[in-house]
Design a protein that fits this description.
The chain is mainly beta. The chain folds into three domains: 73 residues, Phage tail protein beta-alpha-beta fold (3-Layer(bab) Sandwich); 118 residues, TonB-dependent receptor, plug domain (Ferric Hydroxamate Uptake Protein, Chain A, domain 1), CATH 2.170.130.10; 519 residues, TonB-dependent receptor, beta-barrel domain (Maltoporin, Chain A, Beta Barrel), CATH 2.40.170. The protein contains seven helices and 49 strands.
């Protein structure tokens, strides 16, 4: 928990900034050491080694639970003598600041302001979104840098003390880039390939979104709990997005070894926040948002926040639309100084999800244009009267925290969510006419499905010392229950569409499921349910500059399926139980000049509920990872550099059974190894930069399966080829990105800024035997923003912004299968006017 500075010039921080300024203006800074009586009498045990003053103050803040507020430049290159013993916070601060030339003021029992002795306190501009960002591990971050997180350990921990890779998309980054969904927000995240399905889905953020981490499918979490929503993840409702790379089963249960994505919802802020915006863009996009947070009681112990959005737009593909109306209200009640409760609710109504069910196009005309006319991105490959997808999504969340003492805290979070989706669409069934590749075969489908889930996490955590070793421990248990009733009706015959002349016809297929109708429809009607419970523990040990983490978890998983097949006229019932123990260990050593090398080992567990064509249940997916890396936090600067090398083995990796359609096959072991580099930097108050490079070599390692290569030009199948040693398809080996935002100094032109980004995605392979290669592509993003109030006082708080992705409107393919490919998103332009007061 590093201290921070506060912008008293921004509207949302008015009351807190005024409070701090008034508290210090009336006292001589040198002599203003008087703490409130309650604080002076509160004696605690401290064990803080000598070293950089910034690190010592961080340790003091964690131990005492006191928030420090100061300009980060004050502690730059300053040492601290450290301290050890039992004393009051005032006595501890006096010793830590010895010889620093700094003084302190207690503004209340939990807040301290630091300043140079004999000078007034000047508070600098680092506020984002209405909270003191550096102090909140689930908050918006500061600029492009967030230093603390809950995601990796379920405790408030500095990224420098966590022995694995965690990359955070801050609120400021989202504001500058203007992503329209979570997939777009992750474009610049290290080790994450977020748009493997291209323009397939705009509204989707949860399951089936195609996000890959280190070569494996990622799970999505909201506020630390797995989300089963079809429509969650609205970016205007988020404070931050975190990519936890590597196995995370110890803290979260069933997960792939590549990692997980977790999102933090907006919650009431400590200071008032009032914001409205109007947006517009190409493809007939119009949007309005509201974000208001304020006090309910005069003391501020009860606060509220309401965020809302209304959105309508077309897509790059004809006849595909996206519409959403959503609201996110929340209330926080600080019951006393040690107890707080937050209630959050949300409702999303998305009558058009923006999903393009016909987004898979043949290779010839997309990937291959030698002798074939290019298929336009505007081409709607499907049936116009089977082109409806709607979702209703509701959620309620409860968060409770109580601090018994510095040795013991209690936390509890519960979320209930339900989604209802109705689809009438058509899908590419894989049939190919080799003589006329522009013809695509589509099959109408009607789906009605819902998901309802309850997730619950209860944990105790605290701190204690054993001699010179400080421990931060957590013990907890979580569970989740999920029901997924579905009805899926698929027509018996195909509809053929010419993609060069897509006269998508209105068809009325026979979709009656009753036996007397005579319709030979496929599909099923049934429910899949599961229940998972886990018990976990973790100890973060710190001795001088060495941090060691050790944790373990036991998981129990039970699922049941009850379905009725329309084609076979038969009912199927199954019940599955699986269990596993996962663990992790790691160490980090922090040098006083900001470098922190680390090493870790972790395992993962993902239960399987599918069977092979013979009805045999697949064993659980089990993964293990070795990771070594370095993190470097430039002393006194908001610059964080990371480097990581890893090797992941996952056993029982599942692929599609090419012989028995609709079933999976066990591909044995897949190995992913590579390295990642990243930089997050607030270089100056006017320049922010993020950059990343990812290399992932993901191959079938132990595999005795064979498949036939497919010729993309002719569609013909070749000889049987062994899968062992081949690259796993649809995963790029190389990815590179850089994004910078620069605000022109006020001495030149007040309020004007620009940003620019580059994204490179390397080549991928199609099919499990590398049938053919999909080329790499480079995309450019640009933007501009202008603070109208910088030059015109009457317009104070009004800001205009423009963001453009894929500036050159490049035509590119993101991934391919045997006979079809996904197209990427063309040039997208989005502008908005935002007013803060």
């Amino acid at each position: 928990m590093f201290p921070t500075t506060i912008d008293h010039r921004k509207g949302g921080l008015g009351s807190l900034a005024a409070c701090l300024l008034l508290a210090t203006a009336c006292l001589p800074p040198v002599a203003a050491h008087a703490a409130p009586a309650a604080q002076a009498a509160s004696r605690q045990s401290y064990n803080i080694p000598a070293g950089p003053l910034a690190i010592a103050l961080n340790r003091f803040s964690e131990t005492s639970n006191i928030q420090l507020v100061y300009d980060a430049s004050l502690t730059r290159n300053l040492p601290s003598p450290g301290l050890r013993g039992t004393m009051t916070p005032a006595e501890a601060l006096s010793r830590l600041l010895t010889g620093s030339g700094l003084s302190y003021n207690f503004t209340d029992g939990r807040t301290v302001v630091l300043a140079r002795a004999g000078s007034a306190i000047t508070l600098g501009p680092v506020r984002v979104g209405g909270t003191v960002a550096r102090q909140d591990p689930t908050g918006p971050g500061v600029g492009y840098v967030a230093e603390n997180t809950m995601a990796g350990t379920k405790t408030n921990t500095s990224l420098m003390e966590i022995p694995n890779s965690i990359h955070i998309v801050t609120k400021q980054q989202m504001q500058d880039q203007q992503p329209q969904n979570v997939l777009e927000a992750l474009r610049y995240s290290t080790g994450v390939y977020s748009e493997s399905f291209g323009s397939f889905s705009v509204g989707a953020a949860m399951g089936g979104s195609g996000i890959k981490q280190r070569g494996f499918a990622a799970s999505e979490y909201v506020d630390g709990l797995l989300s089963t929503s079809y429509a969650a993840g609205e970016t205007s409702f988020l404070e931050r997005i975190e990519a936890v790379n590597g196995p995370a089963s110890v803290m979260y249960g069933q997960n792939a070894p590549g990692g997980l994505i977790t999102m933090s919802l907006k919650k009431p802020t400590a200071t008032p926040l009032h914001q409205v915006s109007l947006g517009f863009g190409n493809w007939n996009r119009y949007e309005a948002t509201v974000d208001v947070s304020d006090r309910v009681t005069k003391s501020g112990n009860v606060r509220y926040r309401i965020a809302a959005i209304g959105n309508t737009q077309d897509q790059q593909t004809d006849y595909v639309h996206y519409q959403r109306v959503a609201v996110l209200p929340s209330v926080t009640w600080d019951i006393d100084r040690d107890t707080s409760m937050t209630l959050i609710g949300s409702y999303n109504y998305t009558p058009d999800t923006g999903t393009n069910p016909g987004a898979q196009y043949p290779q010839r005309g997309t990937l291959i244009t030698d002798g074939y006319r290019r298929i336009s991105r505007h081409t709607f490959a499907g049936l116009r009267n089977f082109n409806e997808q709607s979702v209703k999504d509701a959620m309620f969340e409860y968060q409770f925290q109580h601090r018994f003492s510095r040795y013991l805290n209690f936390s509890q979070i519960l979320r209930w969510e339900k989604s209802i989706s109705d689809d009438r669409d058509s899908y590419d069934n894989g049939n190919v006419d080799l003589s006329r590749p522009n013809l695509q075969y589509y099959r109408p489908e009607i789906r009605a499905y819902s998901s309802e889930g309850v997730a619950f996490d209860t944990r105790f955590d605290g701190r204690f010392d054993t001699g010179p070793v400080a421990h931060t421990w957590v013990v907890g248990s979580d569970f989740r229950h999920y029901d997924n009733p579905q009805k899926n009706v698929i027509a018996a015959s195909d509809v053929i569409i010419d993609l060069y002349d897509p006269q998508a016809t209105h068809v009325t297929p026979c979709m009656d499921t009753s036996p007397s109708s005579g319709c030979r429809v496929r599909g099923y009607d049934g429910t899949w349910s599961y229940f998972q419970e886990g018990v976990y523990f973790q100890d973060q040990m710190k001795w001088k500059r060495l941090s060691v983490i050790l944790g373990g978890r036991e998981d129990w998983f039970n699922s049941s399926t009850n379905s009725y097949s329309y084609l076979a006229r038969s009912r199927r019932q199954t019940s599955i139980s699986q269990a596993a123990f996962t663990w992790r260990a790691g160490l980090v050593y922090q040098f006083d000049f900001g470098l922190a090398p680390y090493f870790s080992y972790a395992t993962s567990f993902t239960p399987q509920t599918s069977t092979d064509w013979q009805g045999k249940l697949f064993p659980p997916l089990s993964g293990k990872q070795l990771e070594a890396g370095m993190k470097y936090k430039v002393p006194g600067r908001d610059i964080l550099l990371t480097a990581a090398a890893y090797r992941i083995d996952e056993d029982h990796y599942l692929i599609s059974d090419l012989i028995h359609t609709g079933y999976s096959d066990d591909a044995g072991r897949v190995r992913s190894q590579g390295f990642e580099l990243s930089a997050n930097a607030n270089v100056t108050k006017d320049l922010r930069v993020i950059a990343s490079y990812s290399f992932a070599d993901v191959r079938f390692n132990k595999n005795n399966l064979f498949a036939r290569k497919t010729d993309p030009y002719t569609g013909a199948s070749g000889a049987l080829t062994a899968e062992a040693g081949k690259f796993v398809p649809q995963i790029p080996r190389n990815m590179f990105s850089v994004f910078a935002d620069y605000t022109i100094p006020s001495t030149i032109m007040k309020g004007l800024g620009f940003n620019w980004g580059l994204r490179y995605v390397g080549s991928t392979y199609a099919t499990n035997v590398e049938s053919y290669k999909i080329p790499s592509y480079i995309l450019f993003d640009v933007g501009a923003h202008y603070d109208l109030g910088a030059t015109t006082p009457l317009l104070r708080g009004l800001k205009a912004q423009l963001a453009m992705s894929n500036l050159t409107n490049a035509y590119y393919v993101t991934a391919c299968g045997n006979f079809s490919c996904y197209l990427g998103q063309g040039r997208r332009v989005y502008g908005n006017l935002t007013y803060n007061w």
